[in-house]
Amino acid sequence: xxxxxxxxxxxxxxxxxxxxxxxxxxxxxxxxxxxxxxxxxxxxxxxxxxxxxxxxxxxxxxxxxxxxxxxxxxxxxxxxxxxxxxxxxxxxxxxxxxxxxxxxxxxxxxxxxxxxxxxxxxxxxxxxxxxxxxxxxxxxxxxxxxxxxxxxxxxxxxxxxxxxxxxxxxxxxxxxxxxxxxxxxxxxxxxxxxxxxxxxxxxxxxxxxxxxxxxxxxxxxxxxxxxxxxxxxxxxxxxxxxxxxxxxxxxxxxxxxxxxxxxxxxxxxxxxxxxxxxxxxxxx
Length: 284
What we know:
about 50% helix
């Protein structure tokens, strides 16, 4: 048998999570599931914790044993199980924290992407100078080499918005983020001009929550929302005190879908947003 994985990818972990969820919904213990498949309970555990892969044949057997009849979900899980892609982000393994790689992999495969940001311009919209200025504020200070690695990694992530089949993208940003002079006046002006240029693309929608809004209570709603092949495989990414959190429980996904729609409803439409950004660029 092949050796166990040392560091599973985000997609491999998600596959294991979904298989464990199906087993638990079927009311089966790991030992009972193993008996139905004719394997050891340790093998079930290794699959569910993404320490080893699972073939399409075995995955379909597991789904049948778990009484899962959702063909769309099963097909999506098969795609996760059989994906052998080694993306560009792998070159950063052991150079940048694992969540950086997981995020790049997640959004590379996303069907769509929503962002909500309150204090900074969303990462996919940032210029290199703006990103570099943000990374320069880290405490403790990052070594120059790692800072440049992070800037380059962020720029490569932005490739999902480019090319012949770009990812549909919506960003809702608070006006506060646009007024904060990250990196100084010239960097901030260039950042606003870059956002205006990107917002002209058909697949990119940028909206701003204005200061003039009479009431805005969603101060905890900053997030990245990445659409999966099917809604059950969507993922939310949030910064947390202990690090980056990847959220995939359906109940929580429903909460964040509602939060996004609420913040979106509080924002200016795209044309009003472009007018606001244009005026802010002249004021800086």
